[in-house]
Specification:
By secondary structure, the protein is an alpha/beta fold. Helices cover 25% and strands 19% of the residues.
């Protein structure tokens, strides 16, 4: 008879199923004959425990997603559980015979009080693993196998069973057993491979590994590696000289090495000889009662500090506009998708065009998830939704006016921000339409035309005062400076750089080619050579292919700096990259290199960057190598004039947009008579975030909700309650603040400074600070 299989979902209509309900569904499925179960977990506790089945009719459970605490707790013989990722606290708690395989890390309390069964972990474990285990002589002793290393207080009060710590890629390769292992150990044995800082000598000792014991270990080690799919490590892990065996001391051994207690020494020796209080008994009346082993209050070694929003998230620090990416994902988690999309309008007038299509997504490059080889949360998914954002509500005008010279991304950004702050911005541009290179040069293959048109339409409603096809001269600039409170230069870089080699008059500048290509007004021929293999050169190659070119070569004097989508698309159309190449001459036949090689070409295009046009600027505005000199607030040597974007230094579209936002902030503060302030927050350290709760098998994101769920919210509390849940002293509580906010509070009277809260926090909010000494 075929084995009955069933799939059990941890969500009903995007709502998480309660742990109790999910357990009832599992129990009911088994009672109805299901023996192969797949559970899609979303943080539910106790999965796979308490299933009354026989060894003749075993139950196999596969757990996908993120299981909660106590997976397999009180599991019985005949139950096999395989978790396709990491697990939370207390896996195998009170296990009475189940076999559990974990393809990832395990958190604190693994195998706590386990009596039977086996737990195999392909990773590391947290604190207090294999504590209070026991053995019934009528049954096989419990076993725990860990491929990596252990956290602190391992094998505390261990009373039976076998633990094997392989030390492979341990979280602390210098100490695979953690801090203070084997305290109170009274039974069982521990095989350990790798360096450690010792263990409780009062409770345990080393024992030589006999031939019989080594045979048992190697045989079962092979079984363990097969269970977790790591059989290739067998030879590496079966070098006998790498292993040590720790066993509990017998009561007789402990009695023979017992020391006089401190209380007995104080009463029988110290105070007997020196009187009450010892040497300083006549100088102080402080409490001299014994200090407990686990302390709280002022005697803690470390104190937890809730540092919510003290540090900037890596994604926000990496974004030139300073957009709080993690806040957008929080809004999505809270069901406020429209608010998450619209939040971008406070930072850029182009949330879809730039964040969704053109930006290389520096926020994703900085994402903490990538430190654990997991894909960054996909900002493009929410970015592209920005095309549907409506015009934001505008404040009344203050009477202050700012002239913005340049209608590209930087100019529109600063004008947008100035209007959002209640001041009037007037834009001047010599082009026929707004948008700069976004409108005139960037190919439609990079961003759909309808997206650009929609966002420029929204901009025009916010910025009604625009003067196009206006090329300013020095007199025009002087008039603007006199008529407006401030002037912002955002003209970009429009003058192509051309190497003055013989035949350079045959060269087509990249910007000119892209502008003509967008209008379908140029035919490059079959063979094209592009001098300069950066991202703009890649755009040229892609457009040339779309216009009929078949043989496209990009040359550079060094390894090309192109990357990302632009490089991939150029390679997909067959473009070839060649370097190092030094151009000697451009002829009718093509490009002649200094090496003597001729690269045939119908069209030669140069893409080595553009220069700003600064001829209209007065002499009192300082220049350096053709670019305008500014201070940290983008203010030029003329205090009424600011400059942003490529006229200051070459950069990405997002750099120009970020310059514009910062400049608008400075101008607004100056209008209010304030000294300009900056966000001085440091980026939070990557090591503070705990990512073991997230699915390491995820390679791409299917929707916004999945993106939001997988965001660690670095530096900003997710309000997940994990710290409150894992605190062994129930010292942490959530306090609601006036105005709807909250904070997590640690009670010093209960807190023992164990750092469970800091170790568990996915956001890195809790920081363990060394306690200030008394006095």
């Amino acid at each position: 008879m075929a084995t009955k299989s069933i799939r059990i979902e941890g969500r009903d209509n995007d709502t998480r199923v309660e742990s109790r309900i999910l357990e009832e569904r599992i129990q009911q499925a088994v009672a109805e004959g299901a023996r192969e179960l797949t559970v899609e977990a979303f943080g539910q506790h106790g999965i796979g425990g308490r299933l009354w089945v026989s060894d003749k009719e075993p139950v196999n459970i596969t757990v996908n997603g993120a299981p909660g605490q106590r997976l397999g707790s009180m599991g019985f013989g005949g139950t096999s559980i395989e978790v396709m990722g990491p697990v939370s606290d207390d896996v195998g708690w009170l296990n009475a015979g189940a076999e559990i395989v974990v393809h990832g890390h395990a958190s604190n309390g693994a195998c706590n009080a386990m009596a039977q069964g086996k737990v195999f972990i392909e990773g590391n474990i947290g604190a207090r693993g294999m504590t209070m285990t026991k053995t019934n002589p009528r049954f096989d002793p419990p076993e725990m196998w860990v491929l990596g290393g252990s956290g602190d207080y391992f094998a505390e009060f261990m009373a039976g069973g076998t633990a094997v710590i392989c030390g492979h890629e341990a979280q602390n390769p210098e100490n695979v057993l953690g801090y203070r292992p084997c305290v109170g150990m009274v039974g069982g044995r521990i095989f350990v491979r790798g360096p450690h800082d010792g263990f409780s000598n009062a409770d345990a000792r080393l024992e030589p590994i006999s031939d019989e014991t080594w045979a048992w270990l190697t045989e079962n080690l092979e079984n363990f590696l097969n269970k977790i799919g790591r059989a290739e490590l067998l030879d590496e892990l079966t070098r006998r000289e790498d292993w040590q065996l720790i066993v509990a001391k017998t009561p007789y051994e402990k009695k023979g090495t017992a020391r006089r207690s401190m209380s007995a020494f104080r009463a029988d020796v110290w105070e007997e000889e020196l009187g009450k209080g010892g040497l300083i008994g006549d100088l102080t009346d402080i409490d001299r009662s014994p200090i407990p082993l686990v302390v709280n209050g002022e005697l803690r070694r470390f104190v937890p500090v809730w540092e919510n929003a003290k540090y900037a998230a890596p994604c926000q620090s990496s974004c030139p506009t300073g957009m709080p990416v993690q806040e957008r994902w929080r809004l999505v988690r809270d069901g406020l998708v429209d608010e998450a999309v619209d939040l971008a309008l406070a930072y850029t007038p182009f949330p879809a065009t730039v964040c969704g299509y053109l930006c290389p997504n520096l926020c994703m490059e900085g994402c903490t998830r990538q430190t654990k080889n997991m894909p960054a949360v996909d900002i493009q998914k929410i970015g592209r939704e920005g095309v549907n954002s409506k015009v934001p509500e505008l404040p009344p005008l203050s009477g202050k006016k700012v002239a913005v010279i340049g209608g590209g991304p930087g100019g529109l950004s600063v004008a947008w921000q100035i209007r959002m702050k209640g001041h009037e911005a007037v834009v001047f541009d010599m082009a026929e339409t707004l948008g700069g290179k976004i409108s005139s040069a960037i190919p439609n293959s990079r961003v759909p035309k309808e997206v650009v048109d929609a966002e420029l339409g929204r901009v025009s409603k916010v910025l009604p005062h625009v003067h196009l096809q206006k090329k300013l001269d020095s007199d025009d600039f002087t008039a603007l400076r006199n008529d407006y409170d401030f002037v912002v230069l955002a003209v970009g870089a429009q003058k192509p750089r051309i190497i003055p080699v013989p035949g350079h008059e045959r060269i087509v500048p990249a910007l000119t080619f892209l502008q003509e290509a967008k209008k379908k007004a140029i035919k490059p021929g079959k063979k094209v050579v592009i001098i300069g293999a950066g991202n703009v050169g890649c755009d040229v190659a892609t457009e040339a292919a779309g216009l009929g070119a078949e043989d496209i070569t990009l040359i550079d004097i060094q390894e090309p700096a192109s990357f990302g989508k632009e490089r991939r698309e150029a390679e997909e159309v067959g473009a070839k990259f060649k370097w190092p190449c030094f151009t000697k001459e451009v002829t009718e036949e093509g490009v002649l290199l200094q090496s003597g090689e001729l690269l045939p070409a119908d069209t030669v295009i140069m893409s080595i960057g553009d220069q700003p046009d600064v001829e209209f600027l007065p002499e009192n505005i300082a220049l350096e190598r053709g670019h305008v000199v500014v201070n940290d607030n983008y203010q030029t040597t003329d205090s009424k004039v600011f400059a942003i974007g490529d006229i200051v230094r070459p950069g990405l579209l997002t750099h120009a947009i970020g310059h514009g936002r910062r400049t608008a902030e400075v101008i607004d503060e100056m209008f209010q008579g304030k000294r300009p302030q900056t966000d001085t927050r440091e980026m939070i350290d990557y090591s503070r975030m705990t990512l073991e709760y997230f699915d390491p098998r995820l390679t791409e994101f299917s929707n916004l909700q999945q993106c939001a769920d997988e965001c660690s919210s670095c530096g900003t509390c997710r309000d997940c309650g994990l710290c409150e849940t894992v605190c062994p002293q129930a010292a942490i509580s959530r306090k609601t603040l006036e105005g709807g906010g909250f904070e997590m509070v640690s009670d010093p009277g209960k807190c023992i400074g164990c750092s469970f809260c800091a170790s568990a926090c996915p956001c890195g909010i809790w920081n363990m600070v060394e306690n200030t000494p008394i006095g």
